[in-house]
Amino acid sequence: MDVTFKHVTLTYPNGVEVLHDLDFQIPAGQLIALLGPSGSGKSTTLNLISGLLRATSGTINFGEKDVTKLDALQRGVGMVFQNYALYPHMSVLDNIEFPMKMAKVPRAERRERALELAKLVRVDDQIDKKPGALSGGQQQRVAIARALAKRPSILLLDEPLSNLDARLRVEMREEIRRIQQATKVTTIFVTHDQSEAMHLADKIMILHDGVIQQYAEPQKLYHAPVNQFVAGFIGEPTLNIVSGDAIRESLYQIFGTRTQLIDQVGIRAEAITLAELAEQTIKVPVTISRVTAYGRDYHAQLTMGGHEVVSTEIAPSAPIATEVLANVRLSGLYAFDPVGNRVYPEGGEA
Ligand SMILES: Nc1ncnc2c1ncn2[C@@H]1O[C@H](COP(=O)(O)OP(=O)(O)OP(=O)(O)O)[C@@H](O)[C@H]1O
């Protein structure tokens, strides 16, 4: 089922408008991440989809149906919360069956469906246990199975992996992807972790201060961020930011008089190298202060025009503490105007 927001705003009872004119469509069967820093409006947006919150203005459609005024029960979406909220006194199987029991699905039918779901999420060897006897990842699986019990057309996950340790997080994100592909249910999940969103989602919606900054495929966000906020939010290590003034002479090599449009420059860590490259680069003076090797990765700290920057392409054998000319790949360089909009690369695509 696709989800369409048209000019949706949300004002909380204290009078503060926290979501401004949200306009987007989530296509049926996709896995979408709502990504943004704390307070950007992710959970509020999710709650507008679930019906736990009512839009102050605008309309929300599930497919052809206008659901703007329907409550959570009437919308029939499946939800998984951060803390899983399983019933502690019930077995795994009873937890999964519970929503169907409430919906008065006949006993044999709901048992069959619960067993099928336990298998899908791979807890079929745990069905008699109580949630307290399960690991975090297993509880998460049960919560997903329970949310799928009534065959929702939309599944909502609010920070589903945040309570898991790093290794389990990676495992469960692959599992969420697998389960979503097996069921084809339109899935929307909230996260503040860009790498989680990049690994999992078909498309990512980046929110900041209740405004959609960009809504696009992960690769598009990485290679063609529309503004400095998106460029800085996506990517690891974080995008280097250097003021245009600090490297204006270097920028002039390529941009000529257009250099004056540039206020800030973002440079990906992998775009700064001492090697000579066949692709288009600009030469920028840098001073390397330290290079650390992590396994097969490098992390070099340098100063560029008085700014601290990081490169992943400079080896520990590089000259330390003397000024050298680095080559900066234009494919990893973005230029922004004074309000943070991208002015290079020009146009919609990078
Ligand atoms: N019940 C409420 N009443 C008033 N303001 C609220 C309420 N709930 C949230 N807000 C405000 O709305 C804004 C968006 O909050 P929301 O919880 O949607 O953000 P979020 O991106 O999910 O953040 P987090 O990652 O911290 O959960 C914040 O400024 C928050 O303070």
TrEMBL record:
One of its GO terms (molecular function) is ABC-type ferric iron transporter activity. Gene3D superfamilies: 2.40.50.100, P-loop containing nucleotide triphosphate hydrolases. SMART domains: AAA. InterPro entries: AAA+_ATPase (IPR003593), ABC_transporter-like_ATP-bd (IPR003439), ABC_transporter-like_CS (IPR017871), ABC_transpr_FbpC (IPR015853), ABC_transpr_MalK/UgpC-like (IPR047641), Mo/tungstate-bd_C_term_dom (IPR008995), P-loop_NTPase (IPR027417). It comes from the Bacteria. Pfam families: ABC_tran (PF00005). One of its GO terms (cellular component) is ATP-binding cassette (ABC) transporter complex, substrate-binding subunit-containing. Keywords: ATP-binding, Cell membrane, Membrane, Nucleotide-binding, Transport. This is Carbohydrate ABC transporter ATP-binding protein (CUT1 family). It comes from Weissella soli.
